[in-house]
């Protein structure tokens, strides 16, 4: 329940503001009016999208917007339904998701591990960080010609491109996370006999976690973009394959379903990270939620 | 008072590069003694404490501390991602010792809380519990109450004094608050530009009370001594035409 949206009171109206405050203190009493208000306000942001969709549908049905340019919204729904019924939607969605997360696991895992290493060890930093920073300047898609030469156009190529793209955000943010752990805390821990592996697990890693999660968010952005590019290049299955074949047959409704599926995957991954943050960073939000 | 550690400094100096921060300090602290160090900002108080703590090494001289100390800083330095109980456990040999240390600082019911929800005074009490959980023979305190409001500070001073009298550990306290030094310590050492400029013995019996005439007089005297040399240099021009 949001606290910000409490009642339909107009701003500046002193009496209704006072009532508003009373309502704050006694939730459950006299809330009927504000529930209707809440409901109305919750619907308000939906007005414009619904109008746009309606106008779009009308334009499509009237023939002003030919389906080869943009399919009608209801046609997209029908295409999605057909794909769900045939089982194709789930199959392609899971292939794409698996591809993305394999790349994330490989590139992100290596980036995280190397970030921990260079963050925690001066020696590793001197030895490795310069090299990594140099490679960082290369956009992963610029390596496409090489990737094709090395791996062909199969799964390895896609995994490599995604892994290369997610490596840097995780590496950099892990490294900086470890480096920015409060040195006073480290000194305190050492003075209390916390050293070596214990210092890493109890002080450095938890201290770096907020930064690592920021890195993960950036990595996800890079992961989806790379996935879309890699699947557009060549694929025998996955959302990219679905849209490429649909395009060849001018099935714009299926192409649009593909775009929506990418959006869905992105949103799902983002929500997962949010949940992860809520669990791992509970100590940060403890104050706000109390 | 057999529970305390002893400290001995003999001609100890400390330099950071060219800057000599501590110069020829000789000081003996008996087991169970409560010693306070006062002096102007930058005179080397924290450096002295850090030397005793083993966080810095001496440049010259002999330093001997008979047992491992526990430390308390101006900021509580609690690990924000660990609950209160886990933070105290960092300095504690057993769960029972953790619980009893928390109870001693009056926070037995807060052990499942994260530090973020505690007040400044409560955080410092957790830090004190962490420092005392292992029943250390030596407690080093670097302005542990400096960031607290006057009321909480007075409360913490009483707590600290009571615990010290009960446990008999040796205490070395660095503070900006002269009255606090006089209230708590057996001996107040005035540091000036890295040297011991003055030592005051406080013989007022405990429990001591703020406003006690002897304490007020001693506080005044120390304050005058701290300000003395600079007062001439700073204020002289404004009194002459
Ligand atoms: N690691 C360091 N490197 C260089 N100089 C230092 C270092 N630590 C302390 N100093 C210098 O030593 C001097 C004394 O510092 P110290 O922290 O001991 O002062 P202090 O008496 O505790 O001051 P305050 O009351 O402000 O805390 C200062 O001039 C400070 O700049
Ligand atoms: Mg200091």
CATH-scheme architecture of the largest domain in chain B: 3-Layer(aba) Sandwich
Total beta strand runs of chain A: 0
Query: Which structural class should the secondary elements of chain B be placed in?
Result: alpha/beta
Ligands, ions, cofactors: adenosine-5'-triphosphate, magnesium ion
Number of domains of chain B: 2
Biggest sheet of chain A, in brief?
Answer: none
Q: Beta-sheet strand percentage of chain B? A: 15-25%
Low-pLDDT stretches of chain A are 1-31
Q: Which shape of chain B, going by the Cα principal axes?
A: globular
Strand order, main sheet of chain B: write it out: 5-6-7-3-8-9
Oligomer: heterodimer
Helix-strand pattern of chain A: HHHHHHHHHHHHH
Which terms would index this structure?
heterodimer, A: 290 residues, mainly alpha, MetI-like fold, B: Rossmann fold, three-stranded antiparallel sheet, 9 strands, 37% helix, binds magnesium ion
How is this structure best summarized?
The complex is a heterodimer of chains A (290) and B (241). By secondary structure, chain A is mostly helical. In chain A, 79% of the residues lie in helices and 0% in strands.
């Amino acid at each position: 329940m949001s606290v910000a949206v409490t009642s339909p009171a107009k701003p500046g109206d002193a009496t209704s503001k006072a009532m508003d405050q009373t309502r704050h203190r006694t939730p459950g009493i006299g809330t009927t009016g504000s529930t209707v208000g809440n409901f109305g306000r919750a619907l308000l942001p939906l007005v414009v999208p619904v109008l746009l969709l309606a106008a779009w549908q009308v334009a499509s049905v009237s023939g002003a917007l030919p389906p080869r340019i943009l399919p009608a919204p209801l046609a997209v729904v029908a295409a999605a339904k057909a794909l769900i019924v045939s089982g194709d939607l789930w199959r392609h969605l899971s292939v794409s998701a698996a591809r993305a997360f394999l790349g994330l696991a490989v590139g992100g895992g290596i980036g995280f591990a190397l970030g921990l290493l260079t963050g925690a060890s001066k020696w590793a930093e001197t030895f490795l960080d310069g090299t990594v920073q140099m490679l960082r300047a290369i956009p992963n898609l610029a390596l496409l010609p090489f990737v094709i030469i090395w791996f062909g156009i199969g799964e390895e190529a896609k995994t490599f491109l995604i892994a290369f793209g997610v490596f840097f955000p995780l590496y950099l943010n892990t490294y900086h996370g470890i480096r920015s752990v409060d040195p006073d805390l480290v000194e305190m821990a050492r003075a209390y006999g916390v050293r070596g592996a214990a210092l890493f697990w109890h002080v450095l890693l938890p201290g770096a976690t907020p930064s690592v999660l920021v890195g993960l968010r950036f990595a996800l952005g890079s992961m989806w973009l790379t996935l879309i590019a890699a699947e557009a290049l060549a694929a025998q299955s996955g959302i990219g394959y679905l849209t490429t074949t649909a395009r060849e047959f001018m099935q714009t409704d299926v192409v649009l379903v593909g775009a929506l599926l990418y959006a869905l995957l992105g949103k799902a991954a983002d929500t997962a990270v949010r949940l992860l943050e809520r669990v791992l960073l509970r100590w940060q939000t403890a104050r706000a939620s109390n | 008072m057999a529970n305390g550690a002893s400290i001995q400094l003999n001609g100890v100096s400390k330099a950071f590069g060219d800057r000599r921060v501590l110069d020829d300090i000789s000081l003996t602290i008996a087991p169970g003694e409560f010693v306070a160090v006062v002096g102007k900002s930058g005179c080397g108080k924290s450096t002295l404490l850090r030397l005793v703590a083993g966080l810095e090494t001496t440049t010259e001289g002999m330093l001997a501390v008979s047992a491992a100390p526990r430390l308390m800083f101006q900021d509580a330095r609690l690990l924000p991602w660990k609950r209160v109980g886990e933070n105290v456990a960092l300095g504690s040999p057993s769960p029972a010792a953790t619980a009893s240390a928390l109870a001693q600082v009056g926070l037995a019911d807060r052990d499942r809380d994260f530090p973020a929800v505690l007040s400044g005074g409560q955080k410092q009490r957790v830090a004190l519990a962490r420092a005392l959980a292992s029943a250390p023979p030596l407690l080093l305190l670097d302005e542990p109450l400096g960031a607290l409001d006057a009321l909480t500070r007075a409360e913490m001073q009483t707590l600290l004094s009571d615990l010290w009298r009960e446990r008999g550990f040796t205490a070395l306290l660095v503070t900006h608050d002269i009255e606090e030094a006089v209230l708590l310590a057996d001996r107040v050492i005035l540091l000036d530009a890295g040297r011991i400029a003055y030592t005051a013995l406080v013989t007022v019996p405990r429990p001591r009370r703020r406003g006690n005439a002897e304490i007020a007089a001693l506080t005044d005297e120390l304050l005058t001594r701290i300000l003395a040399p600079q007062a001439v240099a700073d204020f002289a021009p404004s009194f002459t035409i």
